[in-house]
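This part of the workshop introduces the protein records we will be handling. An example says more than a description, so a record of this kind follows:
>
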Amino acid sequence: MPELVLPTVSVRDSFLEAMAEFTAEGVENSQTSAWIDVHGARWDTDEGFAAFVEAVRADALEDSPRPEWHVPCTTGWWVDGDTYLGRLAIRHRLTDFLLEVGGHIGYDVRPSRRREGHATAMLRAALPWARDLGIDPALITCDVDNLPSARVIESAGGVLEDVRGVKRRYWVPTS
C-alpha cells in the first residue's frame, strides 16, 4: 500500500529509474527537473545519493542554507515498499511568486505510474502534514490546460479562486 514518507535511501534504484523516465519525457520547470540538473551526477554512488536525501530532508529546516527566493520546504516521497512513485513538496510559506504561481504544494508522479490515482492519494495524505505546519488552507496551482491535476486538486476539496495567466489557483482546506 503506497504511503507518503520522508525521503529515504531505501528507494534509490526505483528513484533513479523514475528520474530516467522524467528525463526521457523532457520534464521542465519542476522540482524533479531541478533535482536532476543539480544533483543527478551525485546519485551514481550510495554516498552521493545519501547526501542528496539528507539535503532534501534538511530543506524543511528554517536555518538550512538556500537561495534567498526559496522558503523552507518539506518533501514527501510517495512510495510502495521500495518503489518510488512520486514526490510532493510542501512550501512552508508563500513568497509573492509562490502566491501567484507555485502555491504551498506541488507534486508529480513518475510517468510510468500516472493515471493510477497516486496524485490524488498523495495529495490527500499530505494535507495533514500541511496542517501540522500551520498551513490552512493550502494554495495549490496547476496549469490551465492540466485538467488531470485540476481534478486531483478539486477531489481534495480545492476551491478555484481564479485563473492568473496560465495558472489555476485553488485553496484546499487542510483540516
Observations:
- The beta strands are 3-5, 73-80, 83-91, 105-109, 138-143, 159-164, 167-172.
- The mean pLDDT is 92.
- The helical segments are 12-25, 31-39, 46-58, 96-102, 118-132, 147-155.
- The two ends are 24 Å apart (CA to CA).
